[in-house]
Write a structure and sequence with these properties.
Distance between the termini: 55 Å
Structural class: alpha/beta
CATH class: Alpha Beta
Strand content: 5-15%
Shape: globular
Radius of gyration: 18 Å
Number of helices: 9
Strand order of the largest sheet: 3-2-1-4-6-7-9
Helix content: 40-55%
CATH architecture: 3-Layer(aba) Sandwich
Number of domains: 1
Amino acid sequence: MSSTVLITGASQGIGKATAYLFAKHGYNIVLVARQIERLKAVAQDLQQLGCSALPVSTDVRQPEQVTNLIETALAHYGSIDVLINNAGVYISGPVEQFSLEDWHVAIDTNLWGYIHTVHALLPHLLAQGKGTIVNVSSIGGKTAIPYLTPYTTSKFAITGFTQALHSELAPKGIQVCGIYPNLIKSDFLERAIFQGQDVEDIESRRKQVEQVLRLPGVEKPEDVAQAIWEAVTHQRAEFLVGTANVAAAANGLFPGAMQWLLRNVFKHKG
């Protein structure tokens, strides 16, 4: 009997790449995102490759939708062996420019979305006495990044959430892992939030990220997918992806210099 993995944010980027990798290794795939047409396209492609894939449109910010997601997936496959929390939003700008709505979008998606899926699935994992939870965080969950304050806040919270879950659930047969990538060449900019002192400032922030994503050393979604696969198969508690290792090491060795650099890189008109 094939194992089943449930992946949020699976319609593109890291989630989509992870779905293809786990399908390649014989997993049943539960594809989760808000845009059902994109999910159906991924599911159809996986099915044509001989894999079983179930698309379920879900806004992970809404607990009742997440409960329906878990019930639907369990009814279809009978069990869920791996949960990969990946849905998220990038948000950048001076902290004073963010509205409370911006803060809620960041926290509700990046943190509560993860809490909702774990809360809904955990009784099943505990009952079967085994399973894996993977929380895709960010280097922003290890290193404070100025001008990404709502984003960094949510990612640091995910780090604490992941580490506490790991400590508590490991003796109960449930492995919990945090994945920490740097910026990734994906489609995350289409739903990113940028704020600034004026329109020019906002646009310069977006262009800066676009320029970084064009650099040759920037990791791809497939790199993160591979890190997730290795974390699951080798029961890793955390996995820093590629250049995130360099950023974390630099911050550990030279925290003052690193923060000075980050402030100047992201300041713009702030």
